Amino acid sequence: MGINVIGVTHPGQVGELPGGTNVLVLADDGTYADEFLDTDFRAHQLVVRAHGRGSAFFGVADKARELGASRVLFGGFRDVATEEDPVLVLDDDLIAFNASFGEHLNNWARPASAYGDGLVTWLTENASRAGLRILQPTRLGIH
After folding, report:
1. Which H/E stretch holds residue 104?
2. Looking at residue 7, what DSSP letter applies?
3. Is 5 helix (H, G, I), strand (E, B) or coil?
4. Up-side HSE of residue 4: CA atoms within 13 Å toward CB?
5. Would you say residue 93 has pLDDT above 80?
6. What would the DSSP string read from start to end of 20-59?
7. Given this model, what pLDDT does residue 36 score?
8. ∠ at Cα 35 (1, 63), nearest 5°?
9. Which residues, at least 6 apart from 40, have a Cβ–Cβ distance to it below 8 Å?
């Protein structure tokens, strides 16, 4: 099954963990680090420094690449297949992608806007240009 890297910004977001080897990565400005590390989530736990949504995303994504993760999950996603074809899953504020997508992600220039509110736009534009699959499960017209 490989390694699942699960990004959270607060210890309360951990929830139920998928099967396999799980690494929880708290993307935090230092506010919740002690609480997170002092709680036994029955998973490997790491903290990356982040200030805002985009820096949290990239901190977790970069750590996932270092660890050789099969898939990267943010928010409440817990059931995203580890397919060989690159896939990005977007559902409101939730993001997930597999290792194949992560390889593409690492080759795209990261403008300042991607570190803020422009993260999802940056992801979808780059994925579309590269011809990669984007799934939006709760929205009409899954791509």
Report:
1. helix 99-105
2. E
3. strand
4. 22
5. no
6. SEEEEEEEESSSSHHHHHHS--SSEEEEEE-SSHHHHHHH
7. 97
8. 40
9. none
The rounded mean pLDDT for the chain is 88
- Where residue 51 falls among pLDDT bands split at 50, 70, 90? confident
State the Cα angle at 113 between 75 and 63, rounded to 5°: 45
Q: What is the DSSP string of 63-82?
A: HHHHHT-SEEEETT------
95 pLDDT higher than 80: yes
Tell me how far apart the alpha carbons of residues 96 and 111 are, in angstroms, rounded to a whole number. 20
Residues in the chain: 143
What does the block give as tokens for 61? 């994504």
The residues, any chain, with a CB within 8 Å of residue 18's CB and separated by 6 or more, are: 4, 73, 78, 79
pLDDT in tens, 9-21: 999 999 888 888 9
* Alpha-carbon radius of gyration of the chain: 14
